[in-house]
Automatic annotation (TrEMBL):
Official protein name in the record: NAD(P)-dependent dehydrogenase (Short-subunit alcohol dehydrogenase family)
Top-level taxon of the source organism: Bacteria
CDD domains per UniProt: SDR_c
Annotated keywords: Oxidoreductase
Domain Ketoreductase residue range list: 7-181
Pfam families noted in UniProt: adh_short_C2
GO MF, any single term: oxidoreductase activity
Amino acid sequence: MGKLDGKIAVITGASTGMGLATAKLFVREGAEVIITGRDQAALDAAVLDIGKGAEAIRGDISSLADLDALRAHVEARHGRLDILFANAGVGKPGLFEEVSDEDFDFTVGINFKGTFFTVQKLISLMPAGGSIILNTSIQGVRGTAGLSVYSATKAALRSLARSLTAEYGPKGIRINALAPGFIDTDIMRRNGLSEEMIREMKTQSTAHTPLGRIGTGHDIAKTALFLATDESEFITGVELTVDGGWAQV
Ligand SMILES: NC(=O)c1ccc[n+]([C@@H]2O[C@H](COP(=O)([O-])OP(=O)(O)OC[C@H]3O[C@@H](n4cnc5c(N)ncnc54)[C@H](OP(=O)(O)O)[C@@H]3O)[C@@H](O)[C@H]2O)c1
């Protein structure tokens, strides 16, 4: 018997990275999982990779029309939603004085506004017992050069988990933030960092991490599973850090 038998889950941004790793684990635990992303070919490959139990809906979380379409699909096909992992996000770095109006709107529009409206559109499909997980970052509580906009969006999501806890706790819906440390995905490559910069960051992060390694998508998937199931039924409004101890020392 799986830990998520009979559950319906949406994972945004699950064509790659930690979203994909989480979709695989959720399906293995018995959930029906709807994954999203902007690239149809990547979504098709992910559905093949995950296998039976997964379906893909193409959409950009910064588009309210796409989010309406996602909601309409979930409602028509499943009638309810038990788990939402609001995971989609971008991490474009840039020094403070070089951040343009467009850069600012791009990152805020996806990471904060897009995640805010993902939750707003889907939350009324959730019965009591529902679990929402917001993918934040340890950068939301740190100061890192070149990450002013990104880090602020993640701090905003951490705040959102608290506000929604006050509003939806009485309805039996839990909202937690999951804050990854350095996780081995393609996000940095996709956002323009060179191979040399990525190698250097991995070396530095590994050296600074008490548990002596950087994280994997599966580390995040296992934590998302904990937050999605009744094993965490009395936990809401928190930010759970998954970073091998990196931000604690
Ligand atoms: N990797 C890390 O070290 C790290 C650390 C802390 C937090 N995080 C957070 O973890 C989350 C997942 O990142 P990842 O590392 O797994 O990176 P990733 O491999 O780049 O995955 C990002 C996923 O989000 C999708 N996505 C991006 N923008 C989207 C949009 N506007 N609408 C819908 N889907 C979108 C991407 O697909 P498309 O591009 O095809 O849309 C992809 O499926 C992000 O929120 C990120 O900020 C990552």
